[in-house]
Design brief:
Elements lengths: L4 H13 L12 H9 L17 E2 L4 H11 L3 E6 L4 E7 H12 L1 H6 L3 H7 L1 H4 L3 H8 L7 E3 L4 H11 L3 E5 L5 E6 H10 L21 E4 L4 H11 L3 E4 L9
Parallel strand pairs: 1-2, 4-5, 7-8
Antiparallel strand pairs: 2-3, 5-6
Helix pairs in contact: 1-2, 4-11
């Protein structure tokens, strides 16, 4: 876990060069590892020409940031400490939903007909700043960054080591250039799946998955949000056929 980029690359190259007998069901081709090591993080963004940035400051109102996330269809926003021009973390959509559910209560939210009217009438929430909410969530989403020029392999290692869902790309002046998300990395790997080797034969049932909470598709969406807040997990909406998961 404490490996730096150079030691990680040396370790993986050594493993790739070794002639080791492995279980073909769990092996990964060294070709995909080489590809990840030889691809700089900024190249991943070439497939996402509309890779916009949405940034918020600590002083911004949570209601405004919430509307911005919905408008741009983002799950999180990097937070800037304006005085030092330094990023201090990410505010997740889930952080906002969690606060809303705990503050208003499921019963009140289930009976509402106009959410934004409810927010405007609630003085405490209407005045809530990003900084207030980040204190409330205790910095659950730290700002993890990688300099341009570093490899995708290093970005993958950061995602796993820091248990985060996105990595910021910065330049030598620590200026934010863009973000790399888990989704973008997965799309990159899928695009090059021919280089994954025998792991492609592995079945879904062989994967180690976490416990999943389920609710019926007829349940109120607020019930789903409550489950997410209480268990901080993913869950599937169950009907006769499996519908997309709500995350």
């Amino acid at each position: 876990k404490n490996m730096d980029q150079i030691s990680v690359q040396r370790y993986l190259k050594k493993k790739a060069d070794q002639d080791v007998v492995v279980d073909p069901l769990h092996s990964t081709s060294h070709h995909i590892l080489d590809l990840l090591h030889n691809t700089p993080v900024q190249r991943l963004l070439e497939g996402f020409p509309d890779n916009r940035l949405y940034i918020a400051k600590r002083e911004d109102k949570v209601t405004d940031v919430f509307k911005g996330l919905i408008h741009f269809k983002f799950n999180a926003v990097p937070i800037l400490r304006k005085r030092e021009n330094k990023y201090i973390g990410f505010l997740e959509m889930f952080d906002i939903v969690q606060y809303i559910v705990k503050h208003f209560g499921v019963e009140k939210l289930s009976e509402m007909t106009d959410f934004w009217k409810l927010v405007d009438e609630e003085y405490i929430f209407h005045k809530l700043s990003v900084n207030d909410l980040m204190i409330h969530t205790k910095g659950s989403s730290p700002f993890v960054s990688v300099k341009q020029g570093y490899s995708l392999a290093f970005a993958c290692e950061l995602l796993g080591r820091e248990s985060c869902r996105r990595v910021a790309i910065i330049n030598e002046d620590k200026r934010l250039l863009s973000l790399i998300t888990e989704t973008q990395l997965l799309q990159f790997i899928v695009k090059h799946q021919s280089q994954l080797g025998n792991i492609l034969t592995k079945k879904v049932e062989d994967l180690k998955t976490r416990n999943v909470t389920t609710i019926l598709h007829t349940e109120l969406a607020m019930r789903g949000f409550q489950e997410m807040v209480e268990k901080v997990t993913y869950f599937d909406i169950i009907t006769l056929e499996i519908l997309p998961s709500l995350t």
